[in-house]
Amino acid sequence: MKKIVYINERIKSFNKKIYVPGDKSLSIRWILMASQAVGTSEAYNLLKSEDVLSALNAVKKLGINYRINKKNCKIFGKGLNGFDFKNNTIINAGNSGTLARLIFGLLVKSKNQIILKGDKSLTKRDFSRVIKPMKMFGQNIKSKNQKLPIKIKGTDYPRPINYYENKGSAQVKSSILFAAMKTPGTTIIKSIPSRNHTEKLFKYLKLPIKISKNKKFDFISFTGTKNYKAFNYTIPGDISSSSFFIVLTLLTKNSKILIKNVNVNNSRTGIIDILKKMNGKIKIKNKKIYKGEEIADIECKYSPNLKGIKIDPKINSRAIDELILIFCLVCAKAKGVSYAKNLGELRHKEQDRLEFVLKFLKTIGIKTIEKNNNLKIYGNPNLKLKGSYVVKNFMKDHRAFMLSCIAALTLDGKKKFIIHDADSINTSFPNFISLLKNLGAKVN
To answer: Which domains, and CATH codes, for the chain?
Structure first.
């Protein structure tokens, strides 16, 4: 794939039915859970992206075989204590923060040392939030400034922990649960609500997990050391990937789209709630439950009367990956002022995404005010651009690249977008550009 794309005109109206690739969060979790199961697990519609392939290569390095083809993927699990690898085996998580953080939990009892590495972007990210609870279990961890590369070695006697997860991080929560699987006794987590795919998988597999909730927190307890049988799974479409086509449709005159078989887990649908409150024409159709997850079709129509919004901070974790898309395009084109608070978590992604939002909006002429990770955006429904806009130096953040493409295709004016690092989409959505072209977009 070319590393630079050029877009200089709006996409014309379309009326299409599409499918987006399999959910990345579920694809990675299925791989890691299947590696711990007893027997052969099989998945259909597994996302075939660099992040997912990194997960497959990781379990292979740990002694778990797999077989993948166009139709399906099989993993030959050996149970909770089935890992078999040499001392100082190197695992490269690539760009995947999900893989890098979750795999800590699976290594809580490893007898040999793992050296965990990542790409340039992942190496800049802080791992302190997962190192802290893993050390409480008894895991031996060596790092410089709590960043990759990190040396990880397990303990013969992991001990259950009580942990307060105060960041709303599903990755940390999942890593703790993975460690708890191999730990005698009951681990207890008090957590700010976040994605709950791991909990749903545990429930589906009938593992001993208990969950209760109040208005502010989730309370999770898990009793470990119970093996479970292999399981099959059909991965639903990714709502984060869908979000780019939702926004494309809302901002394109006389357009309509139906996105089939998407994971609409409530912990992931913050973008739908936000866009509906902004007068976005979105309907959820044909909802059903599949192995604990909610699956549905998403219908979207052009929405010319978008209005600004005051985003409830409680929604942040339910739309964390889509917030830059909402801020940079929907809020920018909406009538009135939009407000959002407590956005510090955006600074801990593939890049400082809040900083990217501020730079991007300034570049296209939208007024913003940011203070202490709180953001105010002054929308302009009549926004028109002139000249060339070069988008680069964003640490190969796949969402920044895809957002820039949607902006180029939906904003009016005589403009030319030159967008670098097109290969960044290989981590999560390899056929993004081809799908845009199928809708009629001119991307060169």
So the answer is: 4-22+236-438 (3.65.10.10), 24-224 (3.65.10.10)
